[in-house]
């Protein structure tokens, strides 16, 4: 992922439309479940709310759609208090069309790791070799044994991301670069092996565990498609992305039903997880921090990811603008992207 000026432009247009400002209200505290609407799990029903009733600038909002279409956007949804404010599809893409999440799916894996830990299947402070077996990397054994599940969640394994195939999960691709915890680098191969960890500890295929613990509980319709020895990518419709955003907004609960029954872990997932990249939690991007790092770069930029967006915003981000933005202080979810 690189600095994406389309992303910044869209966010600025959104905050003009919704009346948000850089100087926004502080993050909300406590549970949102009493004031949030959650669509029925096994139904296409989803309540809507008109932008005008929220005092939004309809002209600014309508001017955004041609811009999105010009950038080959496939789908765009905004939720306010869980209700749909706008739901737009472009070209031949429809509400039933499926598309890939790319790295936005990482945030779902992060949540699933928390569920597995809550069930006593793993501990994120354990070394990864406990669940993957010795020799899952080509690092010297003493260096491999420094890598924990937490390091995989935070992109701090110390394994070299500058290999010919960043997605490769074979030991030959997982090469020592630095001690775990001393270097932040966006390394998809090292992250992807968390899926194998979950499969190993749960005794069921990763897809099945995910369906049982997350997607089936909130009514998502997607599936993970695994490339052998490489990436594991989730495909779904746009509403499923919005549903996951709503689950994040309500701190891992679907209404009053806990999906991740661990408020401590969820808090850690959406807050700075290490001191190298302040804008990264557990496989989740964070706004409002004083600095950030980006994939493929070792530069620390002295800025938040999106300076003009609310400081409490966090996000699941994937290439080609597969993105979910969550703004707790305003009870907003933006599902943006699905770009060709």
Account of the 3D structure:
The protein is α+β, with helices and mostly antiparallel strands and 340 residues long. It is built from 10 helices and 11 strands. The strands form 3 sheets. It has a 6-stranded antiparallel beta sheet, with helices on one face. A 3-stranded antiparallel beta sheet has the order 3-5-4, with helices on one face. Strands 6-7 form a two-stranded antiparallel sheet. The radius of gyration is 19 Å and the shape is globular. The two termini are 16 Å apart. The N terminus is likely disordered.
Distance between the termini: 16 Å
Q: Give Rg in angstroms.
A: 19 Å
Total number of beta strands: 11
SSE ordering: HHEEEHHHHHHEEHEEHEEEE
Q: Biggest β-sheet: count, sense, barrel? A: 6 strands, antiparallel
Weakly predicted, low-confidence segments: 1-9, 21-31
Sum up the overall morphology in one term.
globular
Tally of helical runs? 10
For the structure shown, list the relevant keywords.
6-stranded antiparallel β-sheet, 3-stranded antiparallel β-sheet, 10 helices, 14% strand, disordered N terminus
Question: How would you summarize the topology of this molecule?
Answer:
Layout: H1 5-18, H2 58-70, E1 75-80, E2 83-89, E3 99-100, H3 105-118, H4 129-132, H5 141-144, H6 149-154, H7 188-202, H8 206-218, E4 223-226, E5 232-236, H9 238-249, E6 253-254, E7 257-258, H10 263-269, E8 285-286, E9 314-318, E10 322-327, E11 332-337
Antiparallel strand pairs: 1-2, 1-11, 3-5, 4-5, 6-7, 8-9, 9-10, 10-11
Helix pairs in contact: 1-2, 3-7
